[in-house]
Design goal:
two-stranded antiparallel sheet, 18 helices
């Protein structure tokens, strides 16, 4: 009975990946809605909606009708929701990306302690789950995952994308150079190259100014490069935020573990890992963002989440009899054909 219950609980972990997608969509909706609501709030304060016409009046009139269901004082009450994933506020809860704090400290050579308090929640999640922000919250990761789908379509269409590989240490060099630049020149450079910050900024430009900035070009080039030249290159090799979260999550508490006796060496988990890790060989480490895609695709529920301060040593799984039989049949057929 205990074993059966254990297997049921492992099977339920397959659905965690769906929860992750749901959270990613919610975060994206938050990013898209905050500048629109902020502009609406300004128009309400200026009593400007009544003087609008055309599509502008239709948009803000619709928003006004919706908001009035929740509050009759949007001019003040909408202050409870502000910001983006770089730095956000929902009610009394404030949260900032640890990379934002690092950039501020490098540029100003001192900590602003109320700012420090806003990173405690994401840092705590990172110490618990590792590179959690990248796989569950980062809007750029969602776009790159969609790009991965197009990469597969290109492959099926006969245009095989390349997969150029760089050293995983490259992103740590980017993190170091960004920090050093801030120290020397007194500027925060990370928002200029950090994909989540770029997405939020470009959307603000469109909402407030009606145009996109140069960041959209950078995002487009990176997405095209990932689709055709190197799978998940930004997240694996270039993102300074990914580097920082990997370092913070090196000794995370929750890790993906493999039950070697249940593993049939199908390699599906390795193929689905966007970061190029090898769950089937127990090779995940600090780069893992706990996206649980490998758990969702495993046909035998050999992968699960467990507590542990460090990764397990490499475990060799026992050969599955059915797998050995299938290999024997293939070899026998090949021998007969030759």
């Amino acid at each position: 009975m205990t074993i059966k219950k254990h297997h049921i609980e492992i099977g339920k972990l397959r659905h965690i990946n769906k929860v992750r997608y749901f959270i990613q969509v919610l975060v994206l909706l938050f990013i898209l809605s905050t500048p629109i609501l902020s502009l609406y709030q300004s128009n309400v304060a200026a009593r400007a909606i009544q003087w609008m016409d055309g599509n502008e009046k239709l948009l803000f009139g619709t928003i006004d009708n919706i908001v009035r269901w929740f509050t009759n004082n949007p001019e003040n009450d909408l202050d409870i929701i502000k910001g983006s994933v770089w730095s956000a506020q929902i009610g009394a809860f404030k949260m900032s990306d640890p990379l934002a704090l690092l950039g501020q400290f490098a540029a100003e050579k001192q900590f602003y302690w109320p700012f420090v308090a806003t990173i405690l929640f994401p840092v705590g999640l990172t110490l618990l789950l590792g590179r959690f922000f990248c796989g569950w919250i980062c809007p750029a990761y969602l776009f790159y995952e969609i790009g991965d789908v197009f990469r597969q379509l290109l492959n099926r269409a006969g245009t095989r994308p390349r997969n150029i590989k760089l050293s995983l240490k490259t992103k740590y060099i980017v993190l170091g150079l960004g920090t050093l630049t801030g120290i020397i020149f007194g500027v925060v450079v990370f928002p200029m190259i950090y994909p989540p910050a770029i997405i939020s900024r470009e959307w603000y430009y469109l909402v407030y100014l009606g145009v996109f900035g140069s960041g959209l070009t950078l995002l487009g080039v990176s997405l095209l490069f990932e689709m055709t030249m190197s799978r998940r290159a930004v997240c694996r090799y270039l993102c300074p935020g990914g580097a920082l979260y990997s370092l913070l999550g090196k000794f995370r508490v929750v890790r993906i573990r493999r039950n070697a006796s249940a593993c049939i060496d199908c390699v599906k988990c390795n193929h689905v890992c966007g970061l190029g890790l090898e769950p089937m060989s127990d090779l995940t480490g600090m780069e893992c963002n706990t996206c649980t895609a490998c758990i969702a695709i495993c046909p035998t529920d050999a992968l699960t989440l467990r507590l542990g301060w460090k990764d397990d040593p490499l475990k060799q799984s026992k050969p599955n009899p059915k797998t050995l039989q299938a290999i024997h049949v293939i070899l026998q057929n090949h021998k007969e054909m030759t």
